[in-house]
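Researcher: Structure prediction, please.
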Amino acid sequence: MTAGGEVIVRVEAIEKYFGDHHVLRGIDLEVRQREAVMVVGRSGSGKTTLLRCINFLEEPTAGSVEIDGLRLEADPLQARSRRHQEQIRQMRLRAGMLFQEFNLFPHMTALGNCMEAPMRVLGQARASALDRADYFLEVVGLVDKRDQYPSRLSGGQKQRVAIARALCMEPKVLLFDEPTSALDPELIGEVLQVMEDLAHGGTTMIVVTHEMHFAREAADRVIFMEDGMIIEQGPPEQILDAPREESTRRFLRRFLDT
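Model: Predicted structure follows.
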C-alpha cells in the first residue's frame, strides 16, 4: 500500500464513559500519513465512539488526541469554554468526518454542497472553491451531476458527493463511520470503489466498516476492537487470514469462510 512518513494522528489513553458505561478503555493509536486503517468489531465495541472522540464530536473523558501537530487534551469540565471550542474547531478542520447518513444540504446542488464550507469556513474565493469542487466531483465520478440537487441523486451518489465535499476542505485525515450501512446493496460497490481508490492514492483515512472484502483490498492496517479496547491489529492478510486472538477469530467467522 502507500502508508509511510510521519504520524499524522496520535491518540493517547483515550477513555470514554457514558454515565457508568465504560465505552473506551485506554485506547492508544497512531496513524501515519497516507495510511488507510480499517476498524472492525461487533456492534457496541466502541468503534464509532472512537471516531467521534478523534474529532471531538464526543468529548473524551480522559486522554488526548493529536492531529497534524495540534494536540487537544480531554477536558470535560472545560468542554463549553470558548478556548476549548476553538481548539475543537481547529481539530475538525484537520479531520473530515463521513457519516452513515449523507447530511447534504437539500437546497444546494452537488456543486453548492462542495463549495459552501471552503468559502464560508476557509475563506476561499468563489472561483477557487468552484475549481476544487469540480476537481473532487470528478475524483468521485460525479462531475456530470454537479448541478443536481440531492433529491435527484441515489444514495450512493449522495455519499460520493459527501466524500467530495469532505475532500474540498483538504483535511489531514478522513474519518468514515460505516459509510455504506444506509445504502441499498446494489449501491454499496460504487462508494467502496471510490474509497478504495482514495486509499490506494494515499489519502489518510480511518474507516469503521463491516465490509471485510473492502478492508482486505483497501487497508494498510486492520484493527479489531472489543469491549472498548484494541484487541489485535496488523496487516489485513494477518488479521483477516491468521488472527492471533480467539475473540478476533470468533468475530471473523461471521463474515469470512475461515
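Model: The beta strands are 7-18, 21-32, 36-40, 62-67, 70-73, 95-98, 173-177, 205-208, 221-226, 229-234.
Researcher: Thanks, that helps.
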